[in-house]
């Protein structure tokens, strides 16, 4: 029989009971639910609203329930309890009698579920932040291990200018650093306590909302009771942070898929993070990268789900909001799987520097440097740009590269060219002369690695 059966003359239809229940989903909140209840009971006793002996019986009973759920000795039935809040309360009352029946004084499931979800969001955001730091460390390790390797830099997926592989990895570290900040912001958004808002309008009992907020480690109690029970922004923030994290991973996934192809041959994935084909014996597929890329779509779906669930809901609590948990759990679980598996794949892949260098040697990747060479000899950039364009055109027709042209070819187009042009066209030169802050030169990439290491150490 449901806890609210007093007002009803008929029991709920079995289908309605199953349809309305959130227990199968929200039972994951049991740790947070019990923590919230113990804090509430202690506060009720401190305020003289229930007896201290009752609060003690409640706390003891709840500790027992916590242990039994964790060990698997206690499970709940959706036909008996609609959600984890009612399941635990009913079990508590079975175990400790009247004291258990006093627990819900001055509380509603509306402030209870919001409290549980906020505690949960804070905990899981913290886990994701730790996984984010670990992945950044894996990226930095690859950058350091392959510090000098040159690969083509692309724009429009066309050869643009040469860069260091380490520089490329560090770009992802920067993205992940921003993801970390977004996760931290989501955790902050969750860091306020709804308890005491009760159903929507607070309560006539002299609750100490500051005490429960503090006991549960929240920064402050939420200042408006209606907002306290109807706000799910913190969950949206968290799924958004998850979405952008996936977006970033998906970009590197795409590169890993391309790089591991026969056409690129820039990397070889470890067997442990690739799969074969059931029909084609030669295949080695970059499944992990593909799957992480695919899961990005799923996390976006979670974000869209919750945005749409929350859209146009009148204040305060609406049952629609029960639909918040599945997308949140799914987004967090997905990212929590993706980050470490991605890191492991990354740590175990092999870089093929020769293939990268070979690719970088074609496609006139040093054309800008050729123009810059003329500029340094006094020519205006636009004029140099035109001249090198003509040289490239000439090379395309004759099947040559800039560096294979003779000095006579160069000088036929401009007498500013001299034998030192060949040095200027060397890829190493192109990379390491880009000494601008944030650029691909050895010195600057070293600086970037140090900066990031300090940053990561701060976030540890
Ligand atoms: N299971 C509900 C949820 O997850 C708990 C809050 C229910 N409140 C209510 N008034 N029906 O949203």
Protein model, in words:
The chain has 460 residues and is mainly alpha-helical. It has 3 domains: 5-105, Orthogonal Bundle (Fumarase C, Chain B, domain 1); 110-357, Fumarase C, Chain A, domain 2, CATH 1.20.200.10; 364-459, Ribonucleotide Reductase Protein R1, domain 1 (Orthogonal Bundle). 63% of the residues lie in helices and 5% in strands. The chain is built from 20 helices and 6 strands. It has helices spanning 14-20, 23-26, 30-46, 52-71, 84-96, 98-102, 109-145, 165-189, 209-215, 225-230, 233-259, 287-310, 325-348, 353-361, 367-376, 381-398, 407-413, 421-425, 427-432, 442-459; strands at residues 150-155, 158-164, 192-193, 220-221, 267-268, 350-351. α7 (109-145) packs parallel to α13 (325-348) and α12 (287-310) packs antiparallel against α13 (325-348). The two termini are 49 Å apart. The model has no long low-confidence stretch (mean pLDDT 94). The structure holds arginine. Arginine (ARG) is lined by residues 22, 26, 83, 109-110, 113, 317, 319, 321-322. Arginine binds at residues 22, 26, 83, 109-110, 113, 317, 319, 321-322.
Characteristics:
single chain, Fumarase C, Chain A, domain 2, Fumarase C, Chain B, domain 1, 3 domains, Ribonucleotide Reductase Protein R1, domain 1, two-stranded antiparallel sheet, binds arginine, elongated, 460 residues
Quick recap of the structure?
This protein is mostly helical and 460 residues long. It has three domains: 5-105, Fumarase C, Chain B, domain 1, CATH 1.10.275; 110-357, Fumarase/aspartase (Central domain) (Fumarase C, Chain A, domain 2); 364-459, Orthogonal Bundle (Ribonucleotide Reductase Protein R1, domain 1).
């Amino acid at each position: 029989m449901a806890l609210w059966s007093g007002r009803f003359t008929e029991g709920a239809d079995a289908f309605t009971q199953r349809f309305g229940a959130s227990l199968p989903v929200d039972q994951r909140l049991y740790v947070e639910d019990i923590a919230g209840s113990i804090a509430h009971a202690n506060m009720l006793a401190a305020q003289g609203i229930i007896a201290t002996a009752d609060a003690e019986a409640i706390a003891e009973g709840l500790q027992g329930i916590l242990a039994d759920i964790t060990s698997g000795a206690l499970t709940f039935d959706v036909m008996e309890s609609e959600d984890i809040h009612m399941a635990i309360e009913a079990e508590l009352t079975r175990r400790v009698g009247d004291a258990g029946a006093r627990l819900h004084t001055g509380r509603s499931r509306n402030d209870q579920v919001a409290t549980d979800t906020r505690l949960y969001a804070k905990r899981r955001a913290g886990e994701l932040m730790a996984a984010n730091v670990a992945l950044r460390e894996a990226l930095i390790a690859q950058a350091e291990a392959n510090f000098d390797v040159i690969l083509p830099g692309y724009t429009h997926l066309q050869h643009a200018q040469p860069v260091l592989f380490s520089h490329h990895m560090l770009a992802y570290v920067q993205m992940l650093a921003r993801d970390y900040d977004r996760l931290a912001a989501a955790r902050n958004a969750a860091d306020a306590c709804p308890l005491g808002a009760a159903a929507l309008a607070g309560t006539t009992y002299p609750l100490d909302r500051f005490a429960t907020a503090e006991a549960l480690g929240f920064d402050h109690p939420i200042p408006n009771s209606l907002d306290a029970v109807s706000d799910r922004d913190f969950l949206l923030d968290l799924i958004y942070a998850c979405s952008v994290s996936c977006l970033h991973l998906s970009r590197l996934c795409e590169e890993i898929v391309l790089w591991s192809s026969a056409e690129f041959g820039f990397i070889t994935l470890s067997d442990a993070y690739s799969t074969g084909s059931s029909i084609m014996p030669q295949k080695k597929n970059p499944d992990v990268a593909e799957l992480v890329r695919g899961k990005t779509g799923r996390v976006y779906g979670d974000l869209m789900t919750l945005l749409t669930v929350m859209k146009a809901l009148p204040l305060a609590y609406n049952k629609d909001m029960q639909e918040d948990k599945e997308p949140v759990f799914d987004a967090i679980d997905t990212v929590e799987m993706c980050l470490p598996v991605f890191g492991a794949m990354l740590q175990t892949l092999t870089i093929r520097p020769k293939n990268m260098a070979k690719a970088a040697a074609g496609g006139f990747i040093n054309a800008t440097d050729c123009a810059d060479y003329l500029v340094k000899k006094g020519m205006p950039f636009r004029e140099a740009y035109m001249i090198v364009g003509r040289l490239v055109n000439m090379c395309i027709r004759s099947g040559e590269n800039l560096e294979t042209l003779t000095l006579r070819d160069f000088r036929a187009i401009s007498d500013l060219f001299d034998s030192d042009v060949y040095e200027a066209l060397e890829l190493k030169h192109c990379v390491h002369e880009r000494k601008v802050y944030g650029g691909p030169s050895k010195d600057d990439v070293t600086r970037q690695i140090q900066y990031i290491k300090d940053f990561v150490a701060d976030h540890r």
